[in-house]
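Lab notebook, design round three. We kept the backbone fixed and only want residue identities now. Task for the bench partner: fill in a sequence for the structure below.
Input structure tokens:
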């Protein structure tokens, strides 16, 4: 191998390493909490998400409460008889558009509200243990375009646990 070929290969390897390293972003600094309240025979959930970082992030809403409907079991429900099955809709999807992302500026907080009864057949009374967690299927920094599904870089999101006594 010639000296020039050796240098070219090393340069290519360094460039690939730099590209891969920059593509693997650190997790977005997010805090999440949720509350549950029984009202009028239904259970209302409120999710609060905050960007605790210093830069804007865009989060693919799919499968999260910030999609505005139950398209995934992002809350698990346990009653006296054990885990309750999710009865919400499930979706197959193509590549996302810009409108599918939730944009959160640094320090910004957003809320989403849903009715638990829309996704679970709840017993008429008794305590329920609710745990909220989901995966942001793609997290991108401000100014970047949505990526195809094959290039998504996701992040797990825990949002807490609530004991609801009814």
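Proposed sequence:
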């Amino acid at each position: 191998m010639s000296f020039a070929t050796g240098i070219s290969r090393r340069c290519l390897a360094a460039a690939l390493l730099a590209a891969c390293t920059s593509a693997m972003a650190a997790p977005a600094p997010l805090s999440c909490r949720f509350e549950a309240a029984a009202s009028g025979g239904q259970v209302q959930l409120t999710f609060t998400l905050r960007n605790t970082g210093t830069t804007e992030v865009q989060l693919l809403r799919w499968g999260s409460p910030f999609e505005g409907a139950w398209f995934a079991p992002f809350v698990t429900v346990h009653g006296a008889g054990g885990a309750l099955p999710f009865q919400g809709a499930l979706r197959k999807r193509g590549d996302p558009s810009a409108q599918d992302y939730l944009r959160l500026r640094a320090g910004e907080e957003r809320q989403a509200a849903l009715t638990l009864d829309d996704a679970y057949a709840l017993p008429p009374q008794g305590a329920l243990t609710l745990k909220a967690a989901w995966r942001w299927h793609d997290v991108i920094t401000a100014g970047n375009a949505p990526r195809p599904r094959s290039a998504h870089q996701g992040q797990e999101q825990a949002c807490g646990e609530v004991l609801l006594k009814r």
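Keep this in mind before ordering anything: The helical segments are 3-23.
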